[in-house]
Amino acid sequence: MSSTKCIMGTRKKARAFVRVRPTDDFAHEMIRYGDDNRTINIHLRKDTQRGMVANQQTDWSFKLDGILHNASQDVVYETVAKDVVSQALSGYNGTIICYGQMGAGKTYTMTGATDTYKHRGILPRALQQVFRTIRERPTQAITVRVSYLEIYNDSLFDLLSTLPYVGPSVTPMTIVENPQGVFIKGLSVHLTSQEEDAYSLLFEGESNRITASHTMNKNSSRSHSIFTIYVEAQSRTLSEAKHITSKINLVDLASSDTWGKSGSEGRVLKEATYINKSLSFLEQAIIALGDQKRDHIPFRQCKLTHALKDSLVGNCTMVLVTSIYGEAAWLEETLSSLRFASRMKLVTTEPAINEKYDAERVVKDLENKLALLKHELATRNRLANRPLVNYEPLDEIRIAEISSQVRRYLERTLDEIDILSLRQIREVFNQFRVVLSQQEVESTLRRKYILVDKNDSVAISAVQKAGLIDAEGHLVGKPDRQGFGLGVASSSTKPGEKPESKKTLKELFSSSARKEGVSDPVSGKDSKDGGVADMLLQDREISTMKTLLSDSPKEELHPARPSTPPSKHEAFEDFKKERGREIIHILKENKCVFNERSRMASETTRRINAIKREIDVTKEALNFQKSLREKQGLPLQEAPVGSHMTPLMSF
Questions:
Q1: Helix, strand, or coil here: 187?
Q2: CA 401 to CA 415: how far, in whole Å?
Q3: Local structure of residue 488 (DSSP, 8 states)
Q4: What mean pLDDT, rounded, does the chain reach?
Q5: Distant-in-sequence, close-in-space partners of 651: CB < 8 Å, separation ≥ 6
Q6: What pTM does this model have?
Q7: Looking at residue 600, what DSSP letter applies?
Q8: Rounded mean pLDDT of 140-154?
Q9: Distance CA 242, CA 1 (A)
Q10: Which of 78, 277, 494, 527 has the fewest CB atoms within 10 Å, counting from its CB?
Q11: d(Cα 159, Cα 151) in Å, to the nearest integer?
Q12: Closest CA to 95 of 34, 33, 182, 20
């Protein structure tokens, strides 16, 4: 399992170059180059035969990144493609597109001529540079894979599917997008370990491309092609889980076909229609990318723009080579190609290094680093004569030991806690938090209830004699003027019996303690059993219950114990004042809605009954009229077929 990460780079504009096909009939008066070798000026003469237009534009100026006039294949590659391939070997994606008018040398620029070695194009030179760099970097393990895609009549085809070990694809090829980018599902990708193998794949794909002959070009490409080089590099010397990946898209676009000049017809004319349509969509996408206010880019209009989405926007270095004719007869097509190139320069991309991480290897490296750090800490502690420290996670026994130390420290039976590791410090604070939360819960319970130690027989006996719990330890309630309390009723209490006068809590425990041979815990005298006195002295909340056990028999109103709920009448009144008020309001609203709905239902019922009576009367009249006509021997009047009207019957 692996994950891909892109190190964000700086935004940069696409680069655009113009390559002029050499010709003896070059239009020097109409096409002129600037002194910086980047500007090309076009002058279009007005056609007097078509009439003079006052506002017709006749001059254009285009500033690009370079003009390749009478340039050799070596110069073209050094200027256009060398930096893109070098950056791809460092982890940056790159795309080189050859675009231009018909017969201007796009395929020659991208692939070159096969008869002469020095006339080879960008594509074979890029493969040569990649494998030369692999030989120059012995410390890196670089893997190269290639694929060859053809887009013919807006359909996808694998140009390397004719290889014997590939075989035909069962499912049609589709363009799929994922977080890593755009890829072609069903396109075969081939591993190439030698430069000769890559050339063989290139020539295999070129032989499968669809071409046609017309007046302008004997071997005109009738499809778009994308040759992709996938590069993956990893260090041989460093055991890193990180390795870089990149891809180089080398795109050879078919030229737009001018039907009047090329003389296309039949199948070639149909192909030209698809080519012109896809190039038009590509230009629309480029115009949208150049407009900063546009939110939507129409990439999905055709297969070409969808497949080039990664190249036109995002993580990629973009270069365009526009091929033009220098003759006057093709000046309109030249002008259109230069407009396309100038629009491409407005497209901005953000090249970034593609780093890929192997998750299993990352985990393994982290485990090794952790073991090394533990070893270094153990060595340092040993040299400093420190006690042995266990850096492993704390187990249950160790946690229980720390909890015991914290409680003894709070009880002041332990002077200090020995700290040996950071894990122990965290667990000590965690145990302090546990003790604090327990004290908060106990304090809350003490404010509401009387807490008695079950192991303290003297305290339990005193509470039993006070009538608060029975012999089995259950809470006891007595009937009083306020109602019944929670718990089990005392067996000595009879219905209607008035409550006995209650003693103070101090007298109850004092009398119980004297019977057991224990001095008064409140007086502070010694007792035979010091535990009871300590317990009563520490439980300060018992003093809050003294008002519940008043020793005045004349008091008429007895406050209810915390364990005794209010009477039913009081509880109902409290409910009506708080939550019950909202419920009553909701019930009243629902009742009003119900009454309104009932009224509407009654009115609807009355209307239905009246209509039914009218229907019955009309039906009886029709039956009577029908029987009367039968007796008279007259034919029955029937409605015509397809009519939805009932004939009027006269009586």
A1: coil
A2: 16
A3: E
A4: 78
A5: 621, 625
A6: 0.58
A7: H
A8: 92
A9: 13
A10: 494
A11: 10
A12: 182
Helix H segments across 384-500?
A: 396-410, 422-448, 457-465
Distance between CA atoms of residues 201 and 188, nearest Å: 12
DSSP code string of 314-382: SS-EEEEEEEEE-SGGGHHHHHHHHHHHHHHTT-EE---EEEEEEHHHHHHHHHHHHHHHHHHHHHHHH
How many residues comprise the chain?
A: 651
Instruction: Return the closest-CA partner of residue 326 out of 40, 34, 17.
Output: 40
CA 405 to chain centre: 47
pLDDT by residue (tens digit) across 436-471?
988 888 888 777 776 666 677 777 777 777 666 666
> Between 73-80 and 122-136, two packed helices, what is the crossing angle to 10 degrees?
60
Amino acid at 237: T
- Please give the C-alpha separations between residue 642 and each of 20, 248, 465, 622, 638, in angstroms, as whole numbers: 76, 71, 100, 21, 12
CA distance 124 to 130: 10
CB 358 within 8 A of CB 54: no
Q: Please check whether residue 106 is in contact with residue 323, taking contact to mean a CB–CB distance below 8 angstroms.
A: yes
Measured from the Cβ of residue 236, the count of other Cβ atoms closer than 10 Å reads 11
Burial-class residue 40 by CB neighbours within 10 Å (0-12, 13-18, 19+).
buried
